[in-house]
Inverse folding.
């Protein structure tokens, strides 16, 4: 009953790989976008905000479809990436990572943005008077102070990326060993008569990983808080 | 040559500051009630506020000139700034707050040693503490030490005692006098307290409603030893 099949083990490792790559690769951009939204005034800011949050509210299948017509092998962006970087996204695990990154991006940006907004910009002014140029102020003051939010946002984004289903299956399908994540594997087993035990096993594992991610996020946030209170 | 020469116009909502003058120091006090523009003038000198028009120079170096589009940002002005509320960086220990500027600024010939400053200000025992559990007086002494250790050409202080009660004020004020006597650098000191202005100022700039009422020179800068140092 609790013995995982090879297909299931593969789906679990693939899910972890996809979510990890999606989260880490999108983190720098998430920090930049969160900073732009929290601290800067520029034309088109409202548009950027909407664009970032769209995947949160659109039907995931729409996001997946948009990715397909943008990054498919015959789509302009897809062709460009393949011919210049040799990177194929459609129906590959890399595409699953892109879909997961796009879907988790709003959550990560939101958490980081909130923690940036909570920072007293007077501290950044003070760092400036001590000789730090703006970029160095960001790296030595802003980012460390926002660390709890950055970590919480990263882990939240990771958990979301792990569970992403709609955009992923639309963009990269459900290929065992290549794009079949835990979520799409569960979908397959629910469609297969007699696979109830497999569904249950994968469900339990999905819950355990998600709970562990949330627990880690809490732990990190609390630890950095108590460090700040030294 | 005057230390600081300014002729600036600045509007910020309802408030406007139009100030022209020269500060010779060594200790120039900007005084006035709240809303008189004294902190705004200090922040313009620091580069934290960029005025709409005018000109500002320090020791002959132009820091701001609207007509020539010159604006030297705060991190390149080589100042030390003591804020009213300290503004110690909460994620760093006292020691790392004090040495923060050393990551960005090369020391110059006058750079004081860490232990010199911490001994003078009586904060050596606090070095490994975090800024959150310092008393108000300790916090302001650390803020003063941090500004000095940035080896500034000009020390700016914005009501450094205003957030403290009477007893803490009496505790910190002598330290400020020690710093003035020991390091002999030009200081611009903002306060609404006549007592602090009397005790510290070589010249007192009186501001009201965004305008300079008068500049009272209490000691002749030419005869001041500190000015030549």
């Amino acid at each position: 009953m609790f013995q995982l099949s090879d297909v299931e083990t593969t789906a679990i490792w693939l899910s972890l790989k996809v979510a990890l790559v999606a989260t880490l690769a999108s983190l720098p951009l998430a920090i930049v976008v969160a900073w732009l939204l929290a601290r800067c005034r520029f034309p088109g800011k409202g548009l950027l905000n909407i664009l970032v949050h769209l995947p949160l509210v659109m039907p995931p299948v729409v996001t997946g479809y948009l990715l397909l017509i943008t990054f498919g092998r015959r789509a302009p962006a897809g062709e460009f990436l393949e011919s210049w970087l040799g990177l194929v996204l459609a129906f590959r695990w890399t595409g699953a990572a892109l879909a997961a990154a796009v879907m988790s991006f709003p959550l990560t940006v939101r958490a980081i943005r909130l923690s940036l907004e909570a920072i007293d910009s007077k501290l950044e002014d003070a760092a400036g008077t001590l000789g730090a140029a703006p970029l160095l102020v960001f790296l030595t003051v802003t980012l460390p102070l926002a660390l709890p939010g950055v970590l919480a946002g990263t882990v939240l984004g990771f958990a979301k990326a792990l569970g992403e289903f709609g955009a992923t299956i639309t963009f990269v399908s459900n290929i065992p060993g290549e794009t079949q994540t835990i979520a799409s594997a569960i979908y397959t087993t629910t469609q297969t008569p007699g696979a109830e035990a497999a569904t249950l096993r994968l469900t339990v594992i999905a819950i355990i990983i998600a709970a562990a991610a949330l627990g880690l996020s809490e732990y990190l946030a609390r630890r950095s808080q108590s460090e700040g209170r030294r | 040559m005057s230390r600081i020469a300014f002729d600036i116009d600045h509007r910020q909502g309802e408030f406007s500051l139009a100030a022209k003058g020269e500060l010779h120091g060594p200790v120039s006090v900007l005084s006035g009630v709240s809303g008189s523009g004294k902190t705004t003038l200090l922040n313009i000198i620091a580069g934290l506020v960029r005025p709409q028009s005018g000109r500002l120079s320090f020791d002959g170096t132009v820091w701001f000139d609207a007509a020539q589009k010159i604006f030297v940002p705060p991190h390149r002005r080589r100042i030390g700034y003591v804020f009213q509320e300290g503004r110690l960086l909460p994620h760093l220990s006292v020691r790392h707050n004090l040495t923060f500027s050393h990551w960005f600024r090369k020391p110059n010939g006058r750079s004081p040693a860490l232990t010199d400053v911490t001994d003078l200000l009586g904060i050596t025992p606090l070095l490994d503490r975090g800024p959150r559990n310092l008393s108000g007086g300790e916090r302001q002494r650390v803020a003063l030490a941090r500004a000095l250790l940035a080896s500034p050409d000009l020390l700016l202080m914005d009501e450094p005692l205003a957030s403290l009660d009477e007893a803490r004020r009496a505790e910190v004020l002598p330290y400020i006098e020690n710093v003035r006597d020991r390091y002999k650098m030009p200081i611009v000191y903002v306060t609404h307290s006549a007592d602090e202005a009397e005790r510290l100022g070589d010249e007192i700039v009186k501001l009201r409603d965004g305008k300079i009422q008068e500049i009272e020179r209490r000691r002749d800068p030419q005869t001041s030893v500190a000015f030549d140092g």
